[in-house]
Amino acid sequence: MVMSSIQDLPAENISFTVFKLNGFYSLGEWRRFLFIPYFFMLLLSTTSNSVLIYLIITQRALHSPMFVLIGLMSVVDLFMPIFFVPNMLLSFLFDWNQISLVDCLIQIFCVQYVGAYQSTLLLWMALDRFFAICRPLSYHNYMQMPNFLKFIIVPVLRNTLLNITMVSLAGKLNFCMKNEMDHCFCEHMGLVQLACGDTSTNNLLGLASAFLVSTSDFVFITISYVMIFASVMKSGKSSMKAINTCITHIIIITFSLVFALMAFLSYRIKNNFSPSSRIFISTMYALFPSCFNPIIYGIRTKEIRQQLVKFFNHVKVLPH
Fold it and tell me: Are 127 and 224 a contacting pair, CB within 8 Å?
């Protein structure tokens, strides 16, 4: 009754504070079955990342800087789906699709802030490999915490300030057009598109954020790996042994970048994607790396693979 009375008022007199997330509603009754794949992906992400974090914390053999960074990536991958997938699952089962403006802004901040560290951590991993391969005699000096903090503080400040600014400006908009989003969770551009009035600053900040975080990180990652491969070729080192971990990182980067670009472009350029396809791409951008990363690190990283085998063997011999 309250919502209907609000909708009867002139648009200039209202600003919606409750929104409906209508993601995948075009699927009709089939929408409920989406609970199954998304639940198992959440379960896979939670289990695999938790095991990887546990191994890196408890096994002294994995206490080097490279594995600490992989552990931090697992923390990001663990929390990323938790901010939006449980709400999606409840929506699929019970049609609980309403979210308040405050909760929406909190969700946007959490997803974008934690998500920003996916590319930032890949950059730090590229720096770790650069120092290990191109500056091996000074590696431990560079990777000491006081020195490494110099490389950490700028990206942390960048990610924090950009996301606080984006969410603060989005919260000041008036939403008098409609209160329905074709999405399963709150996304910055999805919310901004519902606003009435001038949103050019929000759009510009969204583009600037993509450039200053993901794009700039990718540029520095590319430069680092070009220098790494050049150093390996020039020095005549055993290529595969020297750059094996680099190849693992590059696989992770490739999958993350493909989904990030598809999600970003699907909302900002004209395309033939259906609403359900755009939503699927956005959810996979946030969820798929969380499932994919720990498996790739577990399979391709010898030290992690060895500790993983020991862990499962220990679990098998525990008394029941």
Answer: yes
**Full pLDDT tens readout for the chain, 320 residues:** 444 444 444 445 577 889 999 888 888 888 899 999 999 999 999 999 999 999 999 988 888 888 889 999 999 999 999 999 999 999 999 888 899 999 999 999 999 999 888 888 888 888 888 888 888 888 888 887 777 777 788 888 999 999 999 999 999 988 887 888 888 889 888 888 888 888 889 988 888 888 888 888 888 888 988 888 888 877 765 555 556 777 777 887 777 777 777 776 666 666 677 777 888 888 888 888 898 888 888 888 888 888 888 877 777 665 55
| Closest by CA position to 311, among listed 87, 52, 135, 129 | 52
What long-range pairs does 197-203 form, CB within 8 A, spacing at least 24? 197/173, 199/173, 201/169, 202/166, 202/169, 202/170, 202/173
Q: Rounded to an integer, what distance in angstroms lies between the CA atom of residue 251 and that of residue 257?
A: 10
Retrieve residue 89's tokens: 């699952």
Query: Reduced to 3 states, what is the DSSP secondary structure of residue 291?
Result: helix
Mode of pairing for the β-strands spanning 18-21 and 98-100: antiparallel
Query: What φ, ψ does residue 318 adopt, rounded to 5°?
Result: -65, 140
Q: Which two tokens stand for residue 36?
A: 């199954």
In the structure encoding, which two tokens stand for residue 173, read together?
A: 């908009």
Instruction: Please give the structure tokens belonging to residue 70.
Output: 């992989």
Name the residue among 129, 109, 82 with its Cα closest to residue 224: 129
- Give me the residues paired with residue 99 across strands: 19
Contacts 24+ apart (CB under 8 A), 191-200: 191/19, 191/104, 191/105, 191/108, 194/16, 194/19, 196/11, 197/173, 199/173
Q: How far is 127 from 150, CA to CA, in rounded Å?
A: 12
Q: CA 214 from chain center: how many Å?
A: 11
The answer to whether 297 and 248 have CB atoms below 8 angstroms apart is yes
Q: Any idea what the Cα angle at residue 39 is, between residues 38 and 45, rounded to 5°? A: 85
User: Looking at this protein, which amino acid is placed at residue 76?
Assistant: V
